[in-house]
Amino acid sequence: MIERPKRGHEPADVREPIVFIIDDDASMRRALTNLFQSVGLEVEAFGSAPEMLQSKVPDVASCLVLDIRLPGLSGLDLQTELASANIHIPIIFITGHGDIPMTVRAMKGGAVDFLTKPFRDQDLLDAVVKAIERDRNRREAEKTVSNLQSMFETLTSREREVLALVASGLMNKQIAAELGLAEITVKIHRGHLMKKMGARSLADLIRMAETLRISKAKPSNVQT
Questions:
Q1: What is the DSSP track for 161-206?
Q2: What are the sequence ranges of the domains in the chain?
Q3: pLDDT 10s digit of each residue in the chain, 224 long?
């Protein structure tokens, strides 16, 4: 089982995006490193998958340029292992011996692109830009969910109940009947939870509930 790459301690927004390269051909590693550095990208190159996995990988937007054929663990097998370990770095495969089944497997596994050598430098650079943007968007989405989860954890159990019923589309009067509370009490709870969640409107609160995948409560027998 593959271990998660060790992370550095710098915040993700401190460093520029990084392109990781895994290729057992030293001349190819040098050529790719020079190409990416020529457009201002940071690069870390490795000769094998274990070499990368044992290194300290900065927690920053990145992508992986990965050779299909590697000694030991192949590029495709590494892709599978990374997915199993819940490591979501976007992958661009490069190979001198591509075929249709190989390409299909790579793309079904979520690869950003599959380039056969010799490829145009611009094609690879375009794929890298796309991959880094994908990773940056994923990280922003995960950060948003993490922040919302932290705010959600500050809610009382009653406020969470009210939030679930709000997410199900019930009005204050209906929520009051469902929970056996006075309507004014529901309004107070709703006001508190909106403040804690940083919601500016009801629609904003409902979007937050959907982002957190809060299960919509099933009213027992509320009259409209």
A1: HHHHHHHTT--HHHHHHHHT--HHHHHHHHHHHHHHHT-SSHHHHH
A2: 6-142, 154-211
A3: 444 445 544 444 447 899 999 999 999 999 999 999 999 999 999 999 999 888 888 889 999 999 999 988 999 999 999 999 888 999 999 998 778 888 999 999 999 999 998 999 999 999 999 999 999 999 999 999 999 999 999 999 999 999 999 999 999 999 999 999 999 999 999 999 999 999 999 999 999 999 999 876 555 655 44
6: tokens are 């060790």
Class assignment of domain 154-211? mainly alpha
CATH architecture of the domain covering 6-142: 3-Layer(aba) Sandwich (3.40)
| Three-class DSSP category at 116 | strand
pTM of this prediction?
A: 0.77
CA distance 111 to 98: 14
Q: What's the start-to-end Cα distance of the chain, in Å?
A: 55
